[in-house]
Amino acid sequence: MLQASLLLFLIYWKWQPMTAGVWSIQNPNGRMALWILSGIGWVMVLLSTFLIDHFDLFGLRQVYLNLRGVPYTSPMFMKKSLYKVVRHPIMLGFIIAFWATPDMTQGHLLFAALTTGYILVGLTLEERDLAAAHGEGYEQYRREVRMILPVPKKKA
């Protein structure tokens, strides 16, 4: 976590505007479609946090339990709603939101590419931790549901 924060700090510190355009969609319907798709990505992020336990995800449940003197227990693994389609809908929502733009500048492209790479590396590490924490139940889930692309897996 410290390394990730330091890398983000470095990116923010050294960030320089890169305003040259990569693409710009001029068709009003195309622009609207991309804005809607970006909005869907952001809604997916928010909705997905509540599906897994929004308050646990952001540390609020841990603080509440600690204040009450109750030991923390991890939420149970459950496959529901968007989590039946992809294993990481929060990250899919971020990727959609970052890439679905009618006006892509070089700076936005660099940001979208770097954060997508960061997300994919992070998911690889998170998958390892989730498999260790949830055992065979999570391994079965991995066999049934794709990590990030909402394409059904072929039945064996």
Question: What is the topology?
Answer:
Blueprint: H1 2-14, E1 21-24, H2 28-52, H3 54-57, H4 60-68, H5 89-99, E2 103-105, H6 106-134, H7 136-144
Antiparallel strand pairs: 1-2
Helix pairs in contact: 2-5, 5-6
Span of the ends, CA to CA: 38 Å
Report the average pLDDT across residues: 89
SSE arrangement, N to C: HEHHHHEHH
**Pairing-aware structural class of the strands and helices?**
mainly alpha
What is the helical fraction, as a range of percent? 55-70%
The proportion of residues in beta strands is under 5%
Q: Record the strand order, biggest sheet.
A: 1-2
Q: Major sheet, described briefly?
A: 2 strands, antiparallel
**Which outline best applies?**
globular
Please explain how this structure is put together.
With 156 residues, the chain is mainly alpha-helical. It has one domain. The protein has helices spanning 2-14, 28-52, 54-57, 60-68, 89-99, 106-134, 136-144, and strands at 21-24, 103-105. Helix 2 packs antiparallel against helix 5.
Main attributes?
single chain; 64% helix; 156 residues
Quick take:
The chain has 156 residues and is mainly α. The protein has helices spanning 2-14, 28-52, 54-57, 60-68, 89-99, 106-134, 136-144; strands at 21-24, 103-105. Helix 2 packs antiparallel against helix 5 (89-99) and helix 5 (89-99) packs antiparallel against helix 6 (106-134).
